[in-house]
């Protein structure tokens, strides 16, 4: 099958031809900028959190929101009741954790981060 023709890099002012959106030089720059701005709390989640999260889900296997509705659903996510926004003390405070199914976690996070009519807040991780 023939390849599509190369086109200029989408980075402003770059004349380099590429088959992707950006040339390899600018793709690295775009990727590093994305990592720095989109996931500012990434270091907290890429730590001992994974092990602790797994243990918490073993101890609290059911979604708290589903339980309130009288439905039994397996929890998949450990949620911070009060969003930590980078505060390490609040992040590691076990009394601030709850087990949720993915659906309820997504709904809660969307409400907190500016979805569903809260357009003044910017959504970010």
Give structural notes:
Residues 51-106 form the HNH nuclease domain. It comes from Clostridium aquiflavi. One of its GO terms (molecular function) is endonuclease activity. Keywords: Endonuclease, Hydrolase, Nuclease. This protein is mainly α and 125 residues long. The chain folds into two domains: 7-38, no CATH class; 42-112, no CATH class. It is 41% helix and 10% strand. The chain has six helices and four strands; from the N terminus they run ββααααβαβα. It has a two-stranded antiparallel sheet. Strand 1 and strand 2 (17-18) form a beta hairpin. It starts with 6 loop residues before the first strand and ends in a 13-residue tail after the last helix.
Average residue pLDDT: 84
Number of separate strands: 4
Helical content class = 40-55%
Sheet with the most strands: spatial strand order: 1-2
Radius of gyration: 20 Å
Largest sheet: 2 strands, antiparallel
Rough outline: elongated
Number of contiguous helices: 6
Q: Which range does the strand content fall in?
A: 5-15%
Distance N to C terminus: 40 Å
Structural class: mainly alpha
Counted up, domains total: 2
- Helices and strands, in order, run as EEHHHHEHEH
Unreliable sequence segments: none
Family: Belongs to the HNH nuclease family.
GO molecular function, one term: endonuclease activity
Organism: Clostridium aquiflavi
Domain HNH nuclease: 51-106
